[in-house]
Design brief:
The chain folds into 2 domains: 3-204 and 356-373, Porin chaperone SurA, peptide-binding domain (Triger factor/SurA peptide-binding fold, Orthogonal Bundle), CATH 1.10.4030; 229-332, Roll (Chitinase A, domain 3), CATH 3.10.50. The strands form 2 sheets. Strands 1, 2, 3, 4, 5 and 11 form a 6-stranded mixed sheet that branches. The protein is built from 13 helices and 11 strands. It has helices at residues 3-8, 13-28, 40-48, 103-115, 122-142, 149-162, 167-176, 181-205, 212-222, 249-264, 269-276, 297-304, 335-368, and strands at 69-72, 77-80, 84-85, 91-96, 99-102, 229-240, 282-286, 290-291, 315-317, 320-332, 370-373. α4 (103-115) crosses α5 (122-142). With 374 residues, the chain is α+β, with helices and mostly antiparallel strands. β4 (91-96) and β5 (99-102) form a beta hairpin.
Length: 374
Amino acid sequence: MTMHKAMEILAEPGRSAKLLGIALMAAFLMLALSGCNTPTSAVEEAGSQPAQTQPPVEGGTGEASDGENQTEAQTANIIHRKSTVTQKGTNIRAVVNGQPITNYDVQRRAAFLRLRRVGGDRNARALEELIDQTIKLQAARRANSLASNKEVDDSFARFASSNKMTPSQLNKILSQAGVTSDHFKQFIRGQMSWQRAVSQRFRSETTSSSSKQDALFKIRQSGAAKPETTEYLIEQTIFVVPTSHADDKGYIAQRRKDADAFRQQFIRCDQTVKQAAGMRDVTVRKLPRVLEPQLPDEWAEEVKALQEGGVTGVKKTPRGIEFLAICSKRSVNDDMAAQVMSQAEEFESFNERGSEIAESYLAELKSKAQIIYR
């Protein structure tokens, strides 16, 4: 969807919702913000399930008083109370472990569900989804795995870029749809943070340690040779896009053109700094040794296909326009390779069990939560 087309459909809310909704659904599968080690599918499946709560039972145990009904349901300690209004006049719809969810929040999430083309009672679904999100964010905060504002903003910018928009243009479309960028960013934060929290949960539950000593011990015990993988020494060249030009399509296009021209003149890694001398806002840096399983997803396939001395195409990232050069590429089977390959095997195990772990963890958190509906 080009930006010109996006701006045209602003005047057609139904059409805008349909097109952006398709883009949103595809993008949710890619929300694994850099640095996350949890499969997005596992989180999506857990986060998209409706809350399995049961209606309150008369005479249930708990701290209910003044005519309130409370029950310890299968997945949460639920209390129903009369609706209250905040000082700003916003109705509180639910309180999760002391944290309120307002009618305004529910309206934003219902609009978001409409973009995602979710049918049924969107208001009810929105409230339950927000309750789950609140519980997940609370767990992530306790685990010190909350995504930072910068990570969330970077993810938002990547999403906009993948749909051929600037962040400000995406913000306008989300506002037009009744979602707002703040609400979408909080959703992103929830997804990223929950992925990390579930990943920590997996590491604490798994019986196999990924430490170097344990990896080597397992290899020696089996009598097998140390696993072999490919080691890369990589040089990164960034044509920086200053924040002041983040929404300037013309400036970004020129930086891309400059970066591609520079890339085509690449000689070898030890010459790049000299070639870049005198150029404005260009950064060249040698990256630490990286093994094949450690390659970033967005670069992995392209890097693996290159020989020593090769360069990737240019790519727009939160840092600017960049490309990578392969300074060295060789097969290794040392202790570090053994450790990394052991970690990769555990990650494969997590790919198989991720959904199960996420669902189980969320169910456990909800069983301990106090949810007050108003």
